[in-house]
């Protein structure tokens, strides 16, 4: 069965495996230990002793922690660029008794390259597999052995493992066409459809599965993502030049990333390959053919062009110097780009070639060299639309180049123009505005304040790039995270003691108002005590409040038993039988739940006095009847002088009648006075006897007066009797009350 030598889907787990060797150099950097072949790191290797050993001692053994079925081995030669010790011919031995005895199971040869090699043999249940070199790539005088990684596997001839292929298909299914350039998309879709159909074949072999995986992986990896705001780098389609030194110095080297190390960003670094095989340069003295053109593959709004000038070691003077830059939508009509206003270059330039590129250093790895100004700025396009960019150097060596008669470049990268997204920076800035300087140390605040100033400047700039926005956001976030809060030193000893005492206090029989304030003060004190940021003023206030309420814990509720008994007696009385003012004066304060004993005793005394001072309402019927009779007299029958005296007494009687607080004595006195004045009324004298008169006696027309006087005496006696009876009843009530107390 065919197998992809790099396919690890049939490998045994590395867990529990151990490696040992007949010879191993003591660790020297990434070389030495036999266990390096099991670490999953191709850059670390097992290597025999540097002094050389007999080839028979250059074996390596893989030990399993328990017996497992094995029918193959994979061997990865060293990947560090060296070749000493690479196995070319081999023998394989196995053991099922933990290495006590071995038997040969296979032998063969491998190609001399850096790829995974494979050896298959009959399936055996084993504890150890030993790889013995017969021939290695070694010097003529010394024998070595080496390996980067070794794996054991078990593969059933009828078993087909599609896991990796199916995982790749899932990955391909979920990608969005809108995220990728069109240039390879059709080829990718056809390969994906073909792979899915072939995968349904029930008779597919492992070799066919491996081939499908490799082809689909290749097409998938050829897809190129469109520039995004987070990664605005454009992937150019092609490049050409007016002159090239040779096939190794191809213009395509300037746009394909060869020679760059990094993560595909503008911070990548370029090598200094001595033959410029990772760069491009012209033939000697190219003259007007010293130009370089890039096809971006589509029309873009351009932002910047980053430049890595030629970095060929000992030949950096071949780099472009004074150049002109043109752009086009269709490669027919060209427009020239002009440097930004106030840009100054560090060396003398030429009017026709207004841009000046920096010279490279020739160091092993260099960052983008860009323009030869103080900041090594990239070329700014500021949103200009173009698909083609052409750079033409001045034709004379020393003007178009930095001195040599060859002209060249290492790498160019272009970025798409995006309006920067400042939303996250704005949100962070707004959040940071509410922070209070007083809460942080001055040193950390200064850094934070500077970051805030820089962030505000970027937010206010309409032309700020996304990179600038992202950078200043990171700086501000870091400065915010690095703020150091001021440690407030407070003395909580007194508060701690007060809380401890309060938590053990007995609140039984304490008046409710004090209990309520006590609980609130204690809760506040506990909160302040546990607050690491509480100020000394807050601590002191919490202590004072708790201490003050603890001073009130002697405020016991009064015993109201006697008071309640007196109130119960009063509750049996009828309020409307007593003068309102005396009744109101007697109302208790029993409802005051917070009354203490002293207050209860005082209320009891006042209540008894008020009870004793109760006064029955007097009977005012006779007085009211007298007033009515007086008002009903025929005033023409009486002298003016006597009527005047009557009117005065009637008004006085009315005052007593309308006074709810009037006593029985006052009512009787008013009635007696009114009776007396009625009896003393003087009739007007009559000179002639009217025809209707039957007697010469005074006729007043008020026949009821005699009845009044008669009934008045009777009512007075009855009223006096009733008054005396009520007084006796009241005195008896008082005696009963005193006896019960």
Give the averaged pLDDT, no decimals. 86
Instruction: Indicate the low-confidence ranges by residue numbers.
Output: 688-701, 706-724
The number of domains: 7
Termini gap: 119 Å
CATH class of the largest domain: Mainly Beta
Give the helix tally: 16
* Outline type: elongated
Classify the beta-strand content into a percent band.
15-25%
Rg, nearest Å: 59 Å
Q: Could you give a short account of the major beta sheet?
A: 10 strands, antiparallel
Secondary-structure content class: alpha+beta
Kindly describe this structure.
Helix content is 34%, strand content 18%. With 741 residues, the chain is of the alpha+beta class. The strands form four sheets. Strands 10, 11, 14, 15, 16, 17, 18, 19, 20 and 21 form a ten-stranded antiparallel sheet that branches. The protein has helices spanning 163-174, 185-199, 206-222, 423-433, 442-460, 466-481, 493-503, 512-530, 536-550, 561-571, 580-586, 597-612, 621-631, 640-658, 664-679, 704-740, and strands spanning 18-21, 31-32, 45-47, 60-76, 86-95, 103-109, 117-137, 146-147, 149-153, 233-234, 238-241, 260-261, 269-270, 280-281, 291-309, 322-328, 334-336, 355-356, 379-380, 385-393, 408-416. Helix 10 runs parallel beside helix 12. It contains 16 helices and 21 strands. The protein folds into seven domains: 18-153, Jelly Rolls; 163-222; 233-416, Galactose-binding domain-like (Jelly Rolls), CATH 2.60.120.260; 423-481; 493-550; 561-612, no CATH class; 621-724, no CATH class.
């Amino acid at each position: 069965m065919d197998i992809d030598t790099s396919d690890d889907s049939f490998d045994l787990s590395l867990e529990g495996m151990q490696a040992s060797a007949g010879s191993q150099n003591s660790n020297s950097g990434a070389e030495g230990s036999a266990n390096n072949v099991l670490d999953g790191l191709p850059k670390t290797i097992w290597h025999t002793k540097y002094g050389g050993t007999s080839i028979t001692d250059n074996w390596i053994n893989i030990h399993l922690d328990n017996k497992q079925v094995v029918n193959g081995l994979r061997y990865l030669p060293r990947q560090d660029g060296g070749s000493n010790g690479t196995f070319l011919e081999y023998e394989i031995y196995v053991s099922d008794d933990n290495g006590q005895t071995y038997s040969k199971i296979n032998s063969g040869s491998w190609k001399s390259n850096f790829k995974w090699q494979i050896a298959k043999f009959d399936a055996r249940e084993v504890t150890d597999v030993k790889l013995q070199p017969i021939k290695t790539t070694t010097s003529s005088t010394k024998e070595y052995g080496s390996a980067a990684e070794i794996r054991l596997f078990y593969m059933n001839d009828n078993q087909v493992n599609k896991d990796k292929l199916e995982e790749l298909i899932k990955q391909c299914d979920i990608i969005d066409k809108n995220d990728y350039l069109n240039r390879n998309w059709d080829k990718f879709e056809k390969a994906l459809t073909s792979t899915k159909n072939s995968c349904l074949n029930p008779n597919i072999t492992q070799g066919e599965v491996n081939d499908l995986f490799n082809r689909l992986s290749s097409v998938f990896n050829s897809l190129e993502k469109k520039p995004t705001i987070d990664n605005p780098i454009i992937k150019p389609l092609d490049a050409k030049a007016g002159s090239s030194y040779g096939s190794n110095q191809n213009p395509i080297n300037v746009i394909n990333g060869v020679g760059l190390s990094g993560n595909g960003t503008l911070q990548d670094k370029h090598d200094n390959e001595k033959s410029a095989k990772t760069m491009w340069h012209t033939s000697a003295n190219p003259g007007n053919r010293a130009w370089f053109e890039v096809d971006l593959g589509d029309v873009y709004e351009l932002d910047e062009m980053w430049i890595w000038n030629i970095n060929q070691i000992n030949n950096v003077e071949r780099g472009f110097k004074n150049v002109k830059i043109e752009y086009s939508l269709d490669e027919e009509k060209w427009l020239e780009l002009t440097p930004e206003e106030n840009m100054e270059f560090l060396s003398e330039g030429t009017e026709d070639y207004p841009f000046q590129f920096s010279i490279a250093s020739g160091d092993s790895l260099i960052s983008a060299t860009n323009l030869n100004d103080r900041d090594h700025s990239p070329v700014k396009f500021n949103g200009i639309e173009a698909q083609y960019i052409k750079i033409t150097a001045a034709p004379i060596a020393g003007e178009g180049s930095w001195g040599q008669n060859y002209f060249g470049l290492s790498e160019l990268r272009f970025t798409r123009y995006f309006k920067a997204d400042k939303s996250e920076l704005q949100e962070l800035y707004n959040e940071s505005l509410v922070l209070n300087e007083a809460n942080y140390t001055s040193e950390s605040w200064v850094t934070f304040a500077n970051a805030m100033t820089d962030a505000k400047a970027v937010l206010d700039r309409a032309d700020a790039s996304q990179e600038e926005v992202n950078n200043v956001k990171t700086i501000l976030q870091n400065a915010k995270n690095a703020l150091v809060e001021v440690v407030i030193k407070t003395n909580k000893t007194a508060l701690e003691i007060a809380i401890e005492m309060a938590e053990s206090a007995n609140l039984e029989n304490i008046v409710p108002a004090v209990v309520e304030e006590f609980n609130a003060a204690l809760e506040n004190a506990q909160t302040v005590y546990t607050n690491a940021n509480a100020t000394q003023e807050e601590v002191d206030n919490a202590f004072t409040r708790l201490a003050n309420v603890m001073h009130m814990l002697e405020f016991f509720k009064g015993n109201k038993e006697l008071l309640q008994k007196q109130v119960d007696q009063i509750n049996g009385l009828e309020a409307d039988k007593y003068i309102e003012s005396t009744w109101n004066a007697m109302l208790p304060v029993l409802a005051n739940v917070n009354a203490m004993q002293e207050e209860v005793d005082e209320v009891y005394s006042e209540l008894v006095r008020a009870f004793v001072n109760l006064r029955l309402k007097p009977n005012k019927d006779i007085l009211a009847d007298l007033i009515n009779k007086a008002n009903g007299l025929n005033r023409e029958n009486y002298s003016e002088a006597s009527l005047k005296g009557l009117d005065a007494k009637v008004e006085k009687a009315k005052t007593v009648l309308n006074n709810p607080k009037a006593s029985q004595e006052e009512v009787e006195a008013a009635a007696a006075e009114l009776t007396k004045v009625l009896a003393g009324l003087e009739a007007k004298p009559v000179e002639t006897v009217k025809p209707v008169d039957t007697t010469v006696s005074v006729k007043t027309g008020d026949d009821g007066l005699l009845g009044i006087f008669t009934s008045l005496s009777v009512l007075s006696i009855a009223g006096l009797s009733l008054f005396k009876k009520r007084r006796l009843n009241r005195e008896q009530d008082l005696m009963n009350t005193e006896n019960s107390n």
